[in-house]
Amino acid sequence: MIKKAVRMKLYPGFKEEYARRHNELWPEMRQMLNDHGAISYSIFLDPETDYLFGYLEIEDEVKWAETADTTINRKWWDFMADVMETNSDNSPVAVDLEQVFEL
């Protein structure tokens, strides 16, 4: 199992909408994540800064990287682009975080 962490940025005032969309995650998106080796995926919000912290456990880096090129993932990015910072292709602006401790 590979542990990954990423930081993203939510636009101010969109906490409830962001959570609602994820609570109603499309079945085909959930299936794609499973098919590409996502063991678990959690997202946390710092309400003071609107930074999102994503924590993932995946099976394989190469398999996981392929998620970016799936049609359903691109559709999801487009769907989420109005509530968070994105790149020109609507992918989230994301910073990989470095693990510095584990108990």
From TrEMBL:
Question: For this protein, what is the EC number?
Answer: 5.1.3.32
* Transport listed as a keyword: no
InterPro entries for the chain: Dimeric_a/b-barrel, L-rhamnose_mutarotase, Rham/fucose_mutarotase
Name the domain of life this protein comes from. Answer: Bacteria
Q: What class of enzyme is it?
A: isomerase
Nucleotide-binding as a keyword of this entry, yes or no, is no
Under the heading Pfam families, the entry gives: rhaM
SUPFAM superfamilies, per database record: Dimeric alpha+beta barrel
> Keywords on this record?
Carbohydrate metabolism, Cytoplasm, Isomerase, Rhamnose metabolism
Tell me a Gene Ontology molecular-function term this record carries: L-rhamnose mutarotase activity
Q: What HAMAP family does the database record attribute to this sequence? A: L_rham_rotase (MF_01663)
Q: What is this protein called?
A: L-rhamnose mutarotase
